[in-house]
Each structure stands twice: as C-alpha cells, then as structure tokens.
Amino acid sequence: LGTTIANLGMTDVVFPKPLFQGDTLRVETRVMGKRRSKSRPLAGIVTFEHKAYNQHGEEVASCTRQAFMHAKSVEEA
Q1: Helix-strand-coil percent breakdown of the chain, rounded to 5?
Q2: Which of 51, 58, 61, 75 falls 20 to 30 Å from 28 in CA-CA distance?
Q3: DSSP 3-state assignment of 55?
Q4: Which CATH architecture has domain 4-76?
Q5: Strand partners, 67
Q6: pLDDT of 14-54, one tens digit each?
Q7: Quick one: which of 9, 11, 25 has its CA closest to 59?
C-alpha cells in the first residue's frame, strides 16, 4: 500500500460499548479489498475494516473505510 491520496468515506460505523477517559485503546486494521482506479493506473481504492478495543478486550468501535491510495507499481494497484 502506498500513501493515502484521499479518504472516500466510512460506513457501518458502530460504537457497541462506551469509551471512557483513561481507557487504553488497541486498534486493528484489516485490508478487505482493493481495486485499481480506471482513470489513474498508479492509484487504487482500498477498503479497510477498523476495530478498536478497550483494555478489557471489549470492542468499543468499528467501521469500514474506503481510501484512494497511491500504488507502488501498476501491478499493486
């Protein structure tokens, strides 16, 4: 993955548990998919899944995000 050109938006935003001042967060990000841009062959759209957990391992936030990103090569886009 290369540098983010633009964030295209977030969907499925959920806060299943409250988050409190002083909580310690751990965040996981997974790449769910990617596709090459038809108009810019050295860039593409990447779909991420983000999840945040508190110090007790409870999920406190999640979302799906799409970003327009530079690719290192045409093959990686």
Answers
A1: 5, 60, 40
A2: 75
A3: coil
A4: Roll (3.10)
A5: 7, 46
A6: 999 999 999 999 999 999 999 999 899 889 999 999 999 99
A7: 25
C-alpha span between 27 and 44 (Å, rounded): 24
> What is the value of pTM for the model shown?
0.84
First to last CA, the chain: 8
How far apart CA 64 and CA 60 sit, in angstroms, is 14
* Residue 57 in tokens: 């391992």
Structure confidence at residue 10 as a pLDDT band (50, 70, 90): very high
Domain range summary for the chain, segments of one domain joined by +: 4-76
